[in-house]
Amino acid sequence: MAFWWPLLVLALAYAICRFLFMLIPHNVPSIDVDDSDVLEDGSQMQENGFIYVPPRGRTQQADPKVQCYEPATMKYLGYFPALTPAEVEERVAHARKAQKVWAKSSFKQRRQFLRILLNYIIKHQQLICEVSSRDTGKTMVDASLGEIMTTCEKITWLLSEGERWLKPEYRSSGRSMFYKKSKVEFHPLGVIGAIVSWNYPFHNIFNPMLAAVFSGNSIVIKVSEHASWSGCFYFQIIQSALAAVGAPENLVEVITGFAETGEALVSSVDKVIFVGSPGVGKMIMRNAAETLIPVTLELGGKDAFIVCEDVDVNHVAHIAVRAALQSSGQNCAGAERFYVHREIYSSFVSEVAKIVKSVSAGPPLAGKYDMGGICLQEHSEKLESLVNDALEKGAEIFARGSFGNISEGAVDQFFLPTVIVKVNHTMKLMQEEAFGPIMPIMKFSTDEEAVMLANDSKYGLGCAVFSGSQGRAREIASQIHCGVAAINDFASNYMCQSLPFGGVKHSGFGRFAGAEGLRACCLVKSVVEDRWWPFIKTKIPKPIQYPIAENGFEFQESLVEALYGLNIWDRLRALVNVLKILKEKNHPSNVWDCLQALGNVLKILKEKNYPSNGTKRND
């Protein structure tokens, strides 16, 4: 016991010191960001305070400007240029020049950049959420959950663990290279290109930017044409934080435009991260193949939400509604297919319907509404067509929410939260990604049937499984072919930023978040060096030096068995033969006889004690 006391005292002292160290605040400077253009009473709002009517029936890409408006009110916000391929290449060239400087920056400088951002985000949560709300139609609560919390969690994880995962990682060297040191190094790739979606404009910019910059890269981000107004403001926050730590100009660039702009970006960078639809993801892969650059694709999903009969129905119902209606259902990790055990099906549907009926949808900044609008023009028409297809095939609408005070010009930008029953997999609603506030609920009888239904999809991003037995929920989730699984919860994986995020099948491939996502921004380099340099160096054995000796293959054959043989006696005998061949080339006198005698002894011992299969004899 006396031996352990000093260790316990040292451990306690270390813990106290760590705690006291945590009480010392970091010296984090504040940054000033010009927000006059995004405030309600700003000059831009006074100048552009009219209702915007987007052209129907033609693509917006013919316009050299990216027009911006509030989906929930259709108020005009302004425009940004659609960059040409030449302009994109120029931005990438500037970013490449800045990256060569930033690659030499210290982790201390990079962490300070993160702290400055975190400090600004915490102090300006309302502003960031209002900008997101105006540009995408989501509520302030949805913005806080999907924009603020996720980004703060990622920054905190990088501050805590980021450097550790980017330091060299030592690996075993194996038997033949035991005298070597083996390690993996993680170097910046160069310029990362990110093409991000509109549904979470703040986080979708910060997510790839944080990983790229912390790992020593520069990044050029093409924001969605449906969220360029907010994206360009968020870019100012990043610029101010970079300037505060003395980072080179143009280390991070945000560009606006349409497909032509994105294609030019893919052709110019060293890696592409894409968040969007499978169709566009395939186009990006084709373009990336021209320059053979790595691609990470996050292409949405059709996540299954499985509810077993042994759950607390009221508890799970509230989680289910949040899983479907978060950000008006415009959530890549949102639940889109609900499978409920037949024993609790009726009570679950009734409980969900009660909650959904209480949900009101309206302009989120114009009143107290539970749900906001649909960001994309004409997307509500697609949602209506999915519902109509289901109704024609026998489904029924069980419950809907209500509309608030919506201006006449913005009616098409809203879709009521809807609960649909009597659905099956012949309906488009159960196969195509809806990306809207619809809850189709289907019965199942056995766990095997639930797994079969969940896997009957071309998507494979995530799933959520609920059961009173965690073991049962884990067993079901383990059989679902997807990249993310939540047990008795919904999408909690993404708040654990130490975990990789991504899917399979039409949900894409590659991962962001976690060590996997951070290292995906790196050139992964294997390095081998002598462990005891300069005392022990690699030397080609005489029998296989050029010109190769007559017994060169015999030497190799014995060396392989000595290193990898399954039987210790065979390995020792082979080792004797290896040494014998080596000595034969150098000292062919009495050493030969000694080694030959040792080999004979080993052979006799083996024959006496072990048969050919290596098991010991009983006689």
TrEMBL record:
Keyword Cell inner membrane: no
Residues annotated as domain Aldehyde dehydrogenase: 63-527
Tree of life domain: Eukaryota
Signal peptide: 1-15
PROSITE patterns: ALDEHYDE_DEHYDR_CYS (PS00070), ALDEHYDE_DEHYDR_GLU (PS00687)
Keyword Signal listed: yes
Alphabetical keyword list: Oxidoreductase, Signal
Transmembrane segments: none
Pfam hit, one: Aldedh
Active site positions, chain numbering: E298
Entry's Gene Ontology molecular function annotations: oxidoreductase activity, acting on the aldehyde or oxo group of donors, NAD or NADP as acceptor
PANTHER family named in the record: ALDEHYDE DEHYDROGENASE-RELATED (PTHR11699)
Family: Belongs to the aldehyde dehydrogenase family.
Protein name: Aldehyde dehydrogenase domain-containing protein
Organism of origin: Carya illinoinensis (Pecan)
